[in-house]
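Suppose you are handed only these lines of text.
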Amino acid sequence: MQNPIPYGDLFPAVREASAAELRYFSEGYDVQIKKDRTPVTSADLAANKILVDALQKLYPEIPVVSEEFDKPNPETLKKAFFLVDPLDGTTDFISGRKEFTVNVALVEQGKVVLGIVAVPALNELYYGYRGEAFFAPLDDAGLLNKRTLHVQDRYRPFMPGRKPRVLVSVTHSDSCTLDHLRKIAGVELPVGSSLKFLRIADGFANYYPRNFSLHEWDIAAGHGVLKAAGGNVYCFGTENEVGYGQKDFVCPPFEAY
Ligand SMILES: Nc1ncnc2c1ncn2[C@@H]1O[C@H](COP(=O)(O)O)[C@@H](OP(=O)(O)O)[C@H]1O
Ligand SMILES: [Mg+2]
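From them, the structure of the protein bound to adenosine-3'-5'-diphosphate can be written out as follows.
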């Protein structure tokens, strides 16, 4: 295990990136379509610059991988690296929905150890590091009103007699996840972005299956918070925790609970 990281030093940059996104959200922004045919806005790029600059200044020895920045060969990232998604839920953002997030995770030896997720338009900040997770209002700069997050419900997939509260994407669906949701027959709760992981950590829901590959930056920070709160994210249909630094930063289908 590496030395503990003073992750609180990152909160000012997370707040600054959040404030920038809110300005674009209310005042307008440009949208471009990337090579992978997903959208990126001027808000994604502005937040990305704030976060990447801060990470490189604060922790010059730790490489940064970001959806909107650098995607080195994962094999060069043996020890530790940051995974950043400056604006997860870009489609929600463009639709005027408030469920978009700022995401920073730290991966050590292939496992997520730190997750920081801000939800600018809902004034929420979640963070978790090595077994301790917290919620605080995002504008509570002194963290005077932080509270501990700990999952209460030990739900596991297909528990007999249980009808889970299941998180589903608002904007993306795929046939494999839809088939699985039909089998589960739970109460479906549409929530945008990486906020879904936090809605398990805060007890609103208990299960988030995705039988489809996303990118590691989409899930790492939410995973970090959920894991520190006592939950976890597993490769779909297994009890193996999702790891990071895989080829092209593509993560496997997963279940969070
Ligand atoms: N079918 C799909 N194709 C491409 N990207 C997808 C996808 N489904 C989900 N994603 C990615 O997953 C992220 C969260 O989506 P969701 O709200 O559906 O959980 C989005 O990240 P970004 O907004 O950072 O691009 C989106 O790009
Ligand atoms: Mg994303």
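What can we learn from it? The chain has a mean pLDDT of 96. The helical segments are 11-27, 42-58, 90-94, 175-184, 195-201, 216-228.
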